[in-house]
Amino acid sequence: MTGSAGFAPDVPAPDEVTAPWWEATREHRLLLQTCARCARVQHPPRALCVHCGSDEPDWSASGGRGAVDSFTVVHRAPRPDLAVPYVIARVRLAEGAVLLTRLQEREPDAWRIGDPVRVAWADLADGRALPVFVPDAAPAPAARPPHDTEKGS
Ligand SMILES: [Zn+2]
């Protein structure tokens, strides 16, 4: 359902800091680091809070909804096994964190900055998964639980 044909990116191995984040992707859960001291979120995971320097970054689940912050359409594959065109984007989540990701399930040239998106998952061969984003027809989230199990669209 993820439409990830040809999507075989080079993915880094988990390390001490990123292991919890990667483990959650196996269950298609998107985690964000949330600082225990200043309560702000950050991504990607780091050992220290980038906002206040606290060494107590905690984890919280993202609702998986956001908007396209910027994007670019890749027409020339950096590797021969990648299918083009595809869309690389910065997505700003409702929680405030920004992810570098891919946009899928819409013609590459049809995307616009500000488009609402929701997370989907591209499964990797080792059981982990990468968050990608697809068009979100629903209105802006209002403290609703994430639709982890519903795929109706
Ligand atoms: Zn902090």
Characterization of this structure:
The protein is mostly beta strands and 153 residues long. The protein has one domain (19-135). 5% of the residues lie in helices and 33% in strands. The chain contains 1 helix and 8 strands, in the order αββββββββ. Strands 6-5-4-7-8 form a 5-stranded antiparallel β-sheet, with no helix packed on it. It has a 3-stranded antiparallel β-sheet with strand order 2-1-3. Strand 7 and strand 8 (129-135) form a beta hairpin. It is globular and about 40 Å long. The two termini are 12 Å apart. The model is unreliable at 1-6 (pLDDT under 50). Bound molecules: zinc ion. Residues 35, 37-38, 40, 49, 51-52, 54 line the site of zinc ion (ZN). Residues 59-121 form the ChsH2 C-terminal OB-fold domain. This is Zn-ribbon domain-containing OB-fold protein. Pfam families: OB_ChsH2_C (PF01796), zf-ChsH2 (PF12172). Residues 22-57 form the ChsH2 rubredoxin-like zinc ribbon domain. InterPro entries: ChsH2_C (IPR002878), ChsH2_Znr (IPR022002), NA-bd_OB-fold (IPR012340), Thioester_dehydratase-like (IPR052513).
Q: Spell out which ligands are present.
A: zinc ion
Number of domains: 1
Integer average pLDDT? 88
The major beta sheet can be summarized as: 5 strands, antiparallel
Strand content: 25-35%
Instruction: Please provide the count of β strands.
Output: 8
Output the number of helix runs.
1
Helix and strand sequence: HEEEEEEEE
Class by alpha and beta content: mainly beta
Radius of gyration of CA atoms, rounded to a whole number = 16 Å
Distance from first to last alpha carbon? 12 Å
> Which sequence of strands runs across the widest sheet?
6-5-4-7-8
Shape: globular
List unreliable stretches of 5+ residues.
Answer: 1-6
Helix content: under 10%
InterPro entries: ChsH2_C, ChsH2_Znr, NA-bd_OB-fold, Thioester_dehydratase-like
Organism: Actinomadura monticuli
Protein name: Zn-ribbon domain-containing OB-fold protein
